[in-house]
Specification:
Blueprint (H helix, E strand, L loop, with lengths): L2 H9 L12 E7 L14 H13 L3 E6 L2 H13 L7 E5 L7 H4 L2 E4 L5 E4 L18 H9 L2 E3 L2 E2 L2 E2 L8 E2 L4 E5 H4 L12 H12 L3 E5 L16 E5 L2 E6 L8 H12 L4 E6 L5 E2 L2 E2 L8 E2 L3 E6 L5 H11 L4 E6 L10 H4 L1 E4 L4
Parallel strand pairs: 1-2, 2-3, 5-6, 10-11, 13-14, 18-19
Antiparallel strand pairs: 1-20, 4-5, 7-8, 9-10, 12-13, 15-16, 17-18
Length: about 350
Amino acid sequence: MTPTTERRRQKRGTYRMPAEWSPQERVWFSWPHARADWPGKFAPIPWVFAEMLRVVSATQRVGLLVHNASVRAEAMEMLDRAGVDLKQIDFVKAKTNRGWLRDCGPIWSRDVDGELFALDWKFNGWAKYPNHKLDTKVPPQIAGFTKHKTLVPMHHGKQVVLEGGGIEVDGAGTVIVTEEWLLSDQQIRNPGFTREDYEKVFATYLGASNTIWLEAGIVGDDTHGHVDDITRFVSRGRVVTAIESQRSDANYQLLRNNRNILARSSLDIVELPMPRPVIFEGERLPASYANFLICNKVVLVPVFNDPADQVALTTLEKCFPTRDVVGIYARDLVWGLGTIHCLSQQQPVTKA
């Protein structure tokens, strides 16, 4: 056993994942190349990425995974045309299957000394898709570029399967997840794991001794219950949670149930509207304003050319008074069954 491994063993149980609003070194994206994720509608997707990167890179660095040399060249040409300062972009060659970095990228936690580690959770394609072998290699590749050590979360002698879109932390000891994601009998991430097992994992690697279990995610969520489409921390002790106003809508009761659970906690609750159902080729898509991304000086919010867009933006502006809240058109993006938060992963600053 190496000294580094031994030191990690000794400090196990002392890691803490910073909240998303904590100071960031950069935000990571993966330039889109998997056309099957947006079947028949891929053409506008790179331009949506270009707009996201333009907004973020105006105030902080962006890390961008590129599948190969031709994808890098394509990305550079489109970003330049979109007015992005390429000096703000760190291009990193890394082969990916799909590149949804919230779920396959590293999640960052600090030890008691403040040292930042890239957590290398196991990614198994949401326990649904077989094409994920390249995506599983993303965390050590990003960690190698940033020169951070990786840490493999283990429990019962196994590498733990976990996706970043399924957890929502406040950086102060609380994590929010859903039972549908981790405790149902569909898309099982860690066979045999109980509620108590997951809570031990959260305490060990996220510094979260308090777990709030919501019931379910929204209709159309291909991940089977990720929390980042429904409830998000906006500051310590305060969350926004999605609410459907139409009683006839399939999301109405499940979102009410989740809100009722939150009401039993000590959290301040801000209600966020849902857009009207987004349907494409007969499929209900997981359109939600809660899938926003918090950066150092801006918050990127998916919008859908919907009457509720402005209500959602105004609500989030009040939650983030020191950041610019920017709407990103996501009606095409959500055809990939995810939007801004799903596609990104923030990297905290190296020193706390």
